[in-house]
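Aim 2 progress update. The chain analyzed this quarter is reproduced below.
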Amino acid sequence: MAYVVAATYRCKSGEEERVREILELMAPLSRAEPACRFYQAHRSTEDPRLFFLYEQYADEAGYQAHMATEHFERHIRGEAIPRLESRERAFWVTLD
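Predicted structure tokens:
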């Protein structure tokens, strides 16, 4: 079983390229975390301001640890979230 996070980001107008840069920076940092099983950001083919993140962690504690990292605090909380119009997250577990 894995703990899954599905997040949708809608950027403020004019902020989409900076958010893309931040998500590209976050990918290798997040993938290097011990509890991270999968981390992939996606960009809509129809709306360049819309991003989708699909993440898998060993468990919920692994996701909480991810959110406590310096890179999450700095890049997501500090830089990406202020550039968003909206941020929606859904949490799942895999059926293994």
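The chain has one domain: 11-93. The two ends are 5 Å apart (CA to CA). These observations will guide the mutagenesis experiments scheduled for the next reporting period.
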